Amino acid sequence: MRIENHPILGPLSNKPTIEIEVDGKKIPAIPGEMISSALIAAGIRVFRRTLKKNEPRSYFCGIGQCTDCMMIVDNVPGVRVCITPVKEGMQIKTQIGLGTWEV
Questions:
Q1: Contact 64, 83 (CB under 8 A)
Q2: How many CB atoms are closer than 10 A to CB 64?
Q3: Structural domains of the chain, count
Q4: Integer angstrom CA distances of residue 26 from 52, 64, 69
Q5: Is residue 7 part of a domain?
Q6: Structural domain of residue 36, as residue ranges?
Q7: What pLDDT does 37 receive?
Q8: Please, is 45 exposed, middle or buried when counting C-beta atoms within 10 Å of its C-beta (0-12, 13-18, 19+)?
Q9: Which of 15, 39, 81, 85 has its CA 20 to 30 A from that of 72?
Q10: pTM, whole model, 2 decimals?
């Protein structure tokens, strides 16, 4: 879900899009938007899962103060996607617990 016609920013229809990959699925994103915004617009609501109970976590504070939106971004775990802008070709994965470093 995205705001298609903002009263101040104008219509969204003329904005360019890029592509990011989330858990192997390619989704569109708008350059400069936060990763969490692109995920929510694509219908992805679970960003990470807790280690002990496998409970889903998602967007919560939106200002980078909590850890609910942490994901693995370009092989770096613990990235707060609510304050990280998208870049063309980003590889994003759902994080379990603290995540793992991939080399």
A1: yes
A2: 13
A3: 1
A4: 29, 25, 19
A5: no
A6: 16-96
A7: 93
A8: exposed
A9: 15
A10: 0.86
What the block records as the tokens of 44 is 């992805």
DSSP E strands in 1-103: the ranges are: 5-6, 10-11, 18-22, 25-29, 48-49, 56-57, 70-73, 76-80, 91-93, 95-96
pLDDT for the residue 55: 93
Residue 38: strand, helix, or coil: helix
In a domain, 5, yes or no: no
pLDDT in tens, the chain (103 residues): 677 787 887 777 777 899 999 999 999 999 989 999 999 999 999 999 999 999 999 888 888 888 889 999 999 999 999 999 999 999 999 999 888 777 6
Q: Which of 98, 58, 56 is nearest to 76 (CA)?
A: 98
The encoded tokens of residue 20 equal 């990011």
77, amino acid identity: P
Beta bridge pairs of residue 10: 6
Output phi, psi for 2, to 5 deg.
-130, 155
